[in-house]
């Protein structure tokens, strides 16, 4: 729950930075560097490095990179009150991936949950003329959810053999390595980041990185990916509430949307949570 709430604040900060001119790749670079510094401190914890299995954290690092990049796309192109609830679809994807990777059975309630999720996304997409990029927001949000869902399942599957203090730091270091490898192709420069946006970007990236560490630690400690994700999915609800009540603190313009649009987004966020609860009850 703490992770969910901290994520919402971090998302609002990153959204503000994007409105001040920070690009998607610039956000990704800053986030990855901050994450690498934070996660590298975990190396002092117990664990074993399996050199012949380095491809595992390398692959998971790709998924983490893809997930956070698509998250930044979703936040930059769309509204926080749309992007964050859509990310809640991750738990349904976790159940689907678990079916194939962990050989878990598919129950009928999963299909009902999927239908509710589709309805929720439709309500989140109902923005009238207020926001014309809801489509790409939802598409990138679902893509990010898919990356993170597979990330969660593989962490649960592979991390125990490595230990929390070895698998995750290597994963995030690989994530930073992939970022540095592709930078030359996109000519990303941090020198062009507007001065006024640095405080928003740095603090937002720090909070999102810290909450991801807390979230992954929870999965690693308790092992119940589904129930942990259910609680975490409340960030969709909290994002709409935060926009409604304190969005102006972050110069967020979503408060200016028609009341009916925000109400529909609230209903959509609640339906997404109901879909996730069905997965849990199954």
Can you walk through the features of this model?
This protein is mostly helical and 282 residues long. It has one domain. It contains 12 helices and no strands. It has helices at 2-19, 24-40, 55-77, 80-87, 90-101, 108-125, 134-162, 164-186, 198-222, 225-232, 235-246, 259-281. Helix 1 packs across helix 11 (235-246), helix 3 crosses helix 8 (164-186) and helix 7 crosses helix 8 (164-186). It is globular.
Provide key terms for this protein.
282 residues, mainly alpha, 0% strand
Q: Helix and strand layout, with pairings?
A:
Elements: H1 2-19, H2 24-40, H3 55-77, H4 80-87, H5 90-101, H6 108-125, H7 134-162, H8 164-186, H9 198-222, H10 225-232, H11 235-246, H12 259-281
Helix pairs in contact: 1-9, 1-11, 2-3, 2-8, 2-9, 3-7, 3-8, 4-6, 4-7, 4-11, 4-12, 5-7, 5-10, 6-12, 7-8, 10-12, 11-12
């Amino acid at each position: 729950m703490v992770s969910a709430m901290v994520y919402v604040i971090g998302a609002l900060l990153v959204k503000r930075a994007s409105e001040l001119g920070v690009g998607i790749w610039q956000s990704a670079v800053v986030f990855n560097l901050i994450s690498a510094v934070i996660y590298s401190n975990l190396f002092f914890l117990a664990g074993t490095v399996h050199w012949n299995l380095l491809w595992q954290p390398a692959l998971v690092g790709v998924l983490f990179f893809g997930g956070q990049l698509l998250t930044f796309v979703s936040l930059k192109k769309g509204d926080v009150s749309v992007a964050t609830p859509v990310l809640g679809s991750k738990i349904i994807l976790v159940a689907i991936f678990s079916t194939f990777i962990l050989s878990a059975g598919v129950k009928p309630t999963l299909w009902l949950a999927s239908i509710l999720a589709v309805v929720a996304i439709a309500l989140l997409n109902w923005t009238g003329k207020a926001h014309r990029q809801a489509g790409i927001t939802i598409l990138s949000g679902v893509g990010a959810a898919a990356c993170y869902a597979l990330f969660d399942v593989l962490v649960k599957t592979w991390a125990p053999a490595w230990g929390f203090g070895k698998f995750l730091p290597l994963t995030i270091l690989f994530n930073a390595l992939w970022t540095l490898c592709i930078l030359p192709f996109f000519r990303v420069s941090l020198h062009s980041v507007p001065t006024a946006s640095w405080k928003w970007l740095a603090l937002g990236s720090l909070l999102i990185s810290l909450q991801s560490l807390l979230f992954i630690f929870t999965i690693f400690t308790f092992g119940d990916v589904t129930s942990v994700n259910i609680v975490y999915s409340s960030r969709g609800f909290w994002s709409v509430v935060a926009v409604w009540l304190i969005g102006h603190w972050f110069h967020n313009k979503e408060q200016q949307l028609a009341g009916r649009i925000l109400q529909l987004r609230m209903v959509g966020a609640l339906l997404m949570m109901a879909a996730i609860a069905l997965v849990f009850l199954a």
